[in-house]
Design a protein that fits this description.
Helix content: 40-55%
Structural class: alpha/beta
Strand order of the largest sheet: 7-4-3-12-11-10-9-8
CATH class of the largest domain: Alpha Beta
Distance between the termini: 40 Å
Order of helices and strands: HHHEEHEHEHHEEHHEHEHEHEHEHEHH
Largest sheet: 8 strands, parallel
CATH topology of the largest domain: TIM Barrel
Number of domains: 2
Strand content: 15-25%
Length: 369
């Protein structure tokens, strides 16, 4: 490529991608940084480019094209002669969080698993607790009105907790219908009890992220672990990551705001970008809003894993039901997410044969005979 063509390609690259870095320019133009800098200096001298410094302590630069440069190289009408970095993403891993929305019914638990399978989720997740550990003493005997009558909070939680033998049944059912099953444990005893199932993944609930002893026990298993990052400060996330790195345990940070349901103006989805930048790791999104669209936004912000609560009916009894997706919402979510790769294409402008046939009917000023 001669210098004129190189300069044209360079300027067009900047014209279409004003925030592109020098390293990205060199990759796209398939040249060394030395050659790139030489041509940039030449273009600056001819006033086809101008430079702006930012972050003065590091003397970082951004370049923009002058009006003289746009006119000289006729950028708005130039045919593309370079490779661009296209939007390209791996398949999103979708987790259906059944949680405790089964209300203790093994049949409802299976219905939730079947919904997850029907609507193309990759995995379905439940929760396991040792209630004697997870419920503070002062809460255990508080009376509560429930669909099963008035009972203590401890008895109510026992009513909706699935047993280990029931999880054995659900594990067999997951293998029968062909969907990955795993659980988020809320205490070390539950973690030890569920080890016999050899689940593929672990999950740290937001409430558990500051329980460092629990994190160590999970990290020792070295299973890929989804770490929800609600109910904590950034320093707590850093401490959790330090533990998982120490035990060489793979992890995914799941951005999360632990409000059930969460108002959309509090979702702070840009935290997905922040987590990727700070921790340079896989990042996902665990949503508790009642709508679907924020999950699509999360995908485009870089969430490779998306977890959503699911329910048979949002009117059912339970604290998580209103923050969950029913079958209609599940279908919208998975259909939209799975469709995105199909719609992206290769980024090259093509005048399709189907378009040509249509154009013959519409471009009346052209001779279509």
């Amino acid at each position: 490529m001669n210098n004129i063509n190189f300069d044209t390609s360079l300027l067009r690259l900047l014209y279409d991608n004003p925030s592109i870095t020098q390293r990205e320019m060199a990759i796209n133009l398939k040249c060394s940084l030395g050659k790139l800098n030489y041509n940039i200096k030449s273009l600056l001298k001819k006033k086809y480019l101008k430079v702006k410094f930012y972050n003065n302590s590091k003397r970082e630069k951004k370049y923009s094209i002058t009006e003289k440069g746009v006119n000289k190289f006729d950028l708005s009408n130039l045919n593309e002669s370079y490779e661009v970095k296209l939007f390209n993403r791996k398949k999103t891993f979708l987790i259906a969080e059944a949680g405790i929305n089964h209300n203790g019914s093994i049949n409802d638990a299976k219905k939730l698993m079947l919904l997850a399978k029907k609507y193309n989720f990759d995995a379905v997740k439940f929760q396991k607790r040792d209630l004697n550990i997870c419920i503070p003493e002062h809460q255990k005997y508080i009376k509560r009105e429930t669909p099963w009558g008035t009972m203590s909070y401890l008895d109510y939680k026992k009513k909706i907790e699935l047993s280990i033998s029931q999880y054995s049944e659900l594990k067999r059912y997951s293998e029968k219908i062909g969907i990955t099953l795993f659980v988020s444990c809320w205490d070390i005893n539950s973690l030890k009890l569920t080890r016999k199932f050899n689940f593929e993944y672990n999950k740290i609930p937001s409430a558990m992220i500051t329980n460092l002893e629990f994190l160590k026990e999970v990290a020792k298993e070295k299973k890929k672990t989804f770490i929800s990052t609600g109910m904590c400060e950034m320093k707590d996330i850093k401490e959790a990551v330090k533990i998982f790195k120490k035990f060489k345990c793979p992890y995914v940070l799941m951005h999360c705001v632990s409000i059930y349901p969460c108002d959309e103006n509090k979702l702070n989805l840009n935290m997905i970008v922040t987590l990727k930048k700070i921790f340079n790791c896989e990042v996902g999104y665990s949503g508790h809003e009642s709508s679907v669209s924020p999950s699509i936004t999360a995908f485009f912000l870089g969430a490779d894993y998306i977890e959503r609560h699911i329910t048979i009916d949002r009117a059912n009894w339970g604290t998580d039901q209103s923050a969950s997706l029913e079958s209609v919402g599940m279908e919208k979510l998975t259909t939209s997410i799975r469709k995105i790769p199909i719609t992206l294409g290769d980024g090259k402008k093509t005048f399709l044969d189907e378009e040509k046939r249509v154009s013959k009917k519409m471009k009346y000023w052209e001779d279509n005979k």
